[in-house]
Amino acid sequence: AGLRVNGLDCGGIYLLDSETGLLTLAYSRGLSDSFVQQASVYEASSPQGIFVMRGKPGYWSNPAGILETGDLLAREGLMSLAVIPVSSQGQIVATLNLGSHVKKEILQSVRHFLETIAAYIGRALTRVRLTEDLKNQSERLQEVNTALKVLLDQRQQDWSDFESSLLGNVKHLILPYIEKLKRSRLD
Q1: pLDDT digits over 127-163, tens only?
Q2: Quick check: 14 and 94 in contact, CB under 8 A?
Q3: In 48-70, which positions are buried (b, 16+ CB within 10 angstroms) versus exposed (e)?
Q4: pLDDT in tens, 59-89
Q5: Among positive and negative, which fits the CA dihedral 63, 96, 118, 46?
Q6: How far from 68 is each of 23, 49, 121, CA to CA, in Å?
Q7: What are phi and psi of 49, to 5 degrees?
Q8: By the 8 A CB rule, do 88 and 129 touch?
Q9: Interatomic CA distance for residues 186 and 181, integer angstroms
Q10: Residue 13 in 3-state DSSP?
């Protein structure tokens, strides 16, 4: 949707790995292979990572001098750039980066639209993560249920073994004495 807007012809979505802090390019369009290869991962401590973690969108005309990627952006021929952090449940989880090889400016109305798209992406990522969490919990519960069934079967087997052992002990150790008592002359 962002690439259908007023001159925006390239972009990508970077996902933030909460464990490593890496911003990894998950999807891109309209960018050269060379650019994608060089800009596919940013560390949280990089200027790009620090900017995204601030949580505020950035819009640049002639972005060649920004975030220590000026040469890369200039070689790509980008004339304007939008970097919009994506939040999910109050946490930054991704960034939506869109640019143009032909338009020098991203209009204010387009900026609002792009920020709305980023909000939708955040909600979608929340749903995806919740679905993954539910799936993982379901799998864990299934494993626990399987383990409980094994334990119950083992307990049942142990109980059966105990009953058999008890019955065998009664037959071999107690019944002979009861038979002797029956044959004795006790009243």
Answers
A1: 888 898 899 999 999 999 999 999 999 999 999 999 9
A2: yes
A3: bbebbeeeebbbbeebbebbebe
A4: 888 776 666 666 777 778 888 888 899 988 8
A5: negative
A6: 16, 12, 27
A7: -65, -45
A8: yes
A9: 7
A10: strand
Six-digit token string for 30 = 């309209």
CB 47 within 8 A of CB 67: yes
Do the beta carbons of residue 99 and residue 69 sit within 8 Å?
no
* CA 73 to each of CA 5, 29, 47, 111, 174: distance values in angstroms, whole numbers, following the listed order: 20, 15, 14, 20, 93
Q: Is 84 exposed, middle or buried (0-12, 13-18, 19+ CB in 10 A)?
A: buried
Q: Which residue is associated with the tokens 């002639």?
A: 62
Residue 147 identity (one-letter amino acid): A
- Polymer length of the chain: 187
Contact by Cβ (8 Å): 9, 28: no
